[in-house]
Specification:
The structure holds two protein chains of two kinds. Chain A is mostly helical. Chain A contains 31 helices and no strands. In chain A, α3 packs across α6, α21 packs antiparallel against α22 and α28 packs parallel to α31. The longest helix of chain A has 20 residues. Chain A starts with 19 loop residues before the first helix and ends in a 9-residue tail after the last helix. By secondary structure, chain B is mainly alpha-helical. In chain B, 42% of the residues lie in helices and 7% in strands. Chain B is built from nine helices and eight strands. Chain B has a two-stranded parallel ribbon with strand order 1-2. In chain B, a hairpin with an 8-residue loop joins β7 and β8. The C terminus of chain B is likely disordered. The chains are: A mainly alpha, B mainly alpha. Chains A and B meet through α1, α2, α16, α19 and α22 of A and β2, α1, α2, β3 and α3 of B.
């Protein structure tokens, strides 16, 4: 029986309720990174191990034994469902308490380990019973336990998540304003798992009206409910159908809430809000155009510059990237050269380029490449900034995917904005300076790779070098870096475009006359 | 500033024109593989606390991303499945750099190297070609067709196998300065010799084959007895008619060895 303790609500698991032996066993078990576990890792669903409410009793030592015999667990589960069945049917005195106890027992079994006995629970017929327990007018504790069970049933395999279908309308009903916060939060969590499963389920949830109530849960200033709702919302709107994002941005109070949270909330909440922004900006041009006209860019840049939480930086960086890539307004009107925000973003991006995290380096380079695709003033600004030495270093030593993004930056910095078709003009001092700093080798590495896009980039940059370096210096450098060899590989390459490009360069710059003048 | 929907440049240009570097903003959809590692990172970070992952495990999981970035070898006819880009470089060096010991040109398969050696360094090949035998093999393995000249083979590749007209099997080399000087001198010599050369319209430049040796061989061949079914007359110099389909039995037997 849960007691009304006054402890502060905590969401993170517990310092360590597990004893030493159990902890050791758990570590051992964790060492084998099996395929199932890997899949579980990468899922966008989240298992609920600890209740959302401070009132819930926290599992203690005895409950967290890991190496439970699977068959024992399954036996316990099926008998728990049996008991639930009886409890639901029971009409007499203490019926509610009996239901709550049965639910509680099932919930414990489903919260214990990384791989709860979901299949057996389903086979035993848990879903209809749980749906019944969600009926209107039920006590909060009952609703909470039932929703918790459903959350964990939905946290695993696709077919298990889909099993929740009959319960969905009820779950949605309980995230309304009239519900108590813990109940609403637990239901939102369950819905988040369902939405995380796939497009089909997202579509169903949306048509059943999940968007509006979930969005409203995001409006209060703080609380774990807001965070869970934001996470669930990000799963709900992730598309690929942009309809949800377009609807979301139009809901009253949403834009304001986003700004408020981005401005004031703690890292954890800001993280989930940022993911909502990621999807809004990736999928909806309407949302993007609304957001770029608010203070959001400013707030995102500030977070990017000041935070050290990788969890927060990833969606903040990506939101910025999407907003820049998605709407010319961003680079034309907001990130104008001369505005403080522009200097700040370049500084913040440089910080990301220096980070040890690959994701940050790669995506920051992408964002910077889009700014570098802007006006000549933008290119000059980047060229003179602290980013420059980082670019050169990354181009020669970074892993392939980062190198490729940096290549885009360097190339974009050397070419003036595109005007119609035909070839763009060079920004000679940038090009010459880059080449003399030794960047050519990095590009030739790209030419040699098996990646078509990278090879194309490399060849295109080589063309700039051959065309733009004075006094045949380009040809000498290319030859010195084994660029000719690299181009000759394409004679037998299956991609016709690349073959043609390589041949054209070789024919034009290393033809019969090459070297005869020297 | 131009916008494109995916990260490939979609500028329409004449096929013959080089696809120049074009600075454009690149946009990715939320499910684009570009964002995959960031998405994985999100989930790992969210779960690591709950699951008490050790740093080692985390690193293992992150590395999976890299390991599974499969790529197929893009060299024509190879298609080898490589587990990573780094593997490609090794694979390329191991499998596609058959090097000619005479002129150091590199070919992607030993078969093509063999064809090159015959065509460029084998005077016997030259002799036979000069006599009108169909010596120039189709480069596509399994085709089996043989043509009488470099040019006609080139045309066959274009017509039957969709090779681009810019494809040159025998590409000019880029020799050192010393060699370049020698080359200019040799070129002048060759131009003189070419008047006595065979019907072959070998459009490319210097072969390493000694012209004198060639002439000697051919004249030696001309003394052989032709088979019954073929014309006895052999002639050199430019032809306006088709080449000879002349196969002296004696020679044939010898080549078969």
């Amino acid at each position: 029986m849960a007691d009304e303790s006054a402890s502060t609500p905590r969401r993170d698991p517990i310092k360590n309720p597990v004893g030493n032996v159990a902890a050791q066993r758990r570590r051992q078990l964790a060492v084998t990174v099996g395929r199932e576990r890997r899949e579980a890792m990468f899922r966008t669903k989240r298992l609920c191990r600890v209740g959302v409410s401070s009132d819930m009793d926290v599992p203690i030592d005895s409950d967290m034994i890991i190496e439970e015999e699977q068959s024992i667990l399954e036996a316990q589960t099926s008998s728990a469902v049996e008991e639930l069945k009886l409890a639901v049917a029971f009409q007499g005195k203490g019926a509610v308490q009996r239901k709550v106890n049965a639910l509680s027992e099932l919930r414990r079994l489903l919260s214990r380990s990384e791989f709860p006995p979901v299949e057996i629970a389903l086979k035993s017929g848990a879903i209809p019973l749980l749906a019944q327990c969600l009926s209107f007018g039920s006590q909060d504790e009952q609703l909470l336990e039932a929703a918790w069970c459903l959350t964990n049933i939905a946290a695993g395999k696709p077919e298990e998540t889909r099993a929740l279908l009959p319960a969905l309308p009820l779950l949605i009903a309980h995230i309304g304003e009239k519900s108590s916060l813990p109940v609403a939060e637990q239901c939102a969590w369950a819905l988040g798992n369902v939405a995380g499963e796939g497009e089909e389920l997202r579509h169903i949830l949306l048509s059943q009206g999940a968007l509006l109530p979930l969005a409203k849960m995001m409006l209060p200033n703080k609380g774990s409910t807001v965070r869970t709702a934001a996470w669930a919302l990000s799963n709900l709107i992730k598309g690929p159908d942009p309809k949800a994002t377009t609807e979301l941005i139009k809901i009253d109070g949403v834009v304001d809430a986003i700004l408020r949270h981005m401005r004031k909330s703690d890292d954890e909440l800001a993280t989930e809000i940022a993911w909502v922004v990621v999807y809004l900006s990736a999928l909806s041009t309407i949302a993007t155009s609304v957001l770029v006209k608010t203070d959001l860019l400013q707030l995102l840049v500030e977070r990017l510059a000041s935070s050290n939480s990788l969890q927060l930086l990833i969606p903040v960086l990506r939101s910025l990237g999407n907003l820049i890539a998605g709407d010319a307004y961003t680079t034309n009107a907001v990130l104008v050269v001369g505005h403080e925000i522009t200097d700040n973003i370049i500084r913040a991006l440089s910080k990301c380029l220096k980070s040890e995290h690959r994701v940050l380096k790669k995506e920051a380079a992408w964002v910077l490449s889009n700014i570098a695709a802007g006006s000549v003033a933008h290119k000059q600004l980047i060229y003179k900034s602290e980013a420059l030495p980082l670019l050169l270093q990354l181009l020669s030593t970074a892993p392939f995917d980062i190198k490729k993004e940096v290549a885009y930056i360097v190339g974009n910095l050397c070419v003036a904005p595109a005007e119609g078709s035909g070839r763009s003009s060079l920004i000679s001092d940038h090009l010459v300076s880059f080449v003399r700093s030794g960047c050519l080798r990095g590009f030739i590495d790209l030419v040699r790779s098996a990646d078509i896009e990278a090879a194309r980039l490399g060849l295109q940059f080589m063309e700039l070098v051959l065309r733009g370096m004075p006094n045949g210096e380009g040809q000498q450098l290319v030859e010195k870096e084994d660029g000719i060899d690299a181009m000759e590989r394409f004679q037998f390459h299956e991609n016709e475009d690349l073959r043609n490009m390589a041949n054209q360069l070789v024919d034009k710059y290393f033809g019969e006359d090459y070297g005869l003048d020297h | 500033m131009m916008m494109v929907d995916n990260h490939l440049q979609t500028q329409t240009q004449l096929q013959s024109e080089f696809q120049y570097w074009l600075p454009v903003r690149r946009r990715f959809g939320p499910d684009d593989p570009f964002f995959a590692s960031g998405n994985i990172e999100r989930e790992l970070l969210a779960k690591q606390i709950a699951l008490n992952l050790t740093e080692e495990e985390e690193q293992q999981l992150r590395n999976l991303e890299d390991e599974y970035r499969e790529v197929f070898c893009p060299i024509v006819g190879c298609g080898a499945r490589l587990r990573s880009l780094a593997e490609f470089e090794d694979h390329y060096n191991a499998r596609h750099t058959a090097c000619c010991s005479v002129c150091s040109r590199v070919y992607p398969t030993s078969r093509l190297l063999g064809i090159h050696i015959s065509e460029a360094h084998d005077s016997f090949f030259q002799a036979k070609a000069a006599r009108g035998y169909a010596m120039y093999e189709c480069l596509v393995e399994g085709c089996g067709v043989k043509l009488k000249s470099y040019k006609s083979r080139h045309q066959h590749l274009i017509d039957k196998h969709n090779f681009p007209s810019s494809f040159e099997f025998f590409k000019k080399s880029r020799p050192s300065k010393k060699e370049r000087i020698k080359k200019t001198q040799r070129k002048q010599q060759q131009q003189q010799l070419q008047q006595h050369a065979t019907e072959d319209e070998e459009g490319s430049s210097p072969m390493q084959v000694e012209e004198e040796a060639l002439n000697g061989l051919v004249s030696a061949l001309s003394k052989l007895t032709p088979s019954d079914s073929s014309p006895s007359a052999i002639s050199f110099g430019r032809r306006h008619t088709r080449g000879l389909a002349f196969v002296p039995r004696a020679v044939h037997r010898e080549t078969k060895k």
